[in-house]
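User: Fold this; tokens only.

Assistant: Input:
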Amino acid sequence: MGQSTPLRAKPLRAKALIVEDDPMQREMIGLLLEESDFDVIQCESAEAAELVLERSGGSLVLMMTEIHLAGHMNGVELAYVAKKCNPDMGVIVTSGKPLRQALPEGAQFWSKPWAPLDVIREAEKMSFAWSVAGKP
């Protein structure tokens, strides 16, 4: 009989949620995060993202959202939902317009245009913190 090769479990990757109604922006952010070894979930509206947060918010490491979204909820309101579902999640709210609402504690506001390298740096920082904390 031949020797069998031991099975190796696929390493767990950090998960990120991108909420952006512009498909090109959403895809670009997704590619940046995938390059940083994230599994990415993309949503076009805050309402779709809210469903993701309700189902798997505890497993998300990062959410990046535009303020102005299709639907009834904006990105700032979504940031509050995200922090309620998972207070440890990194939340980045971004817009080309000034921030006019208070963000939940721990959330960041990034004015557009931001540099793609900033997304990678922040994602890697959050992924490292997640892996050190031993989160599944």
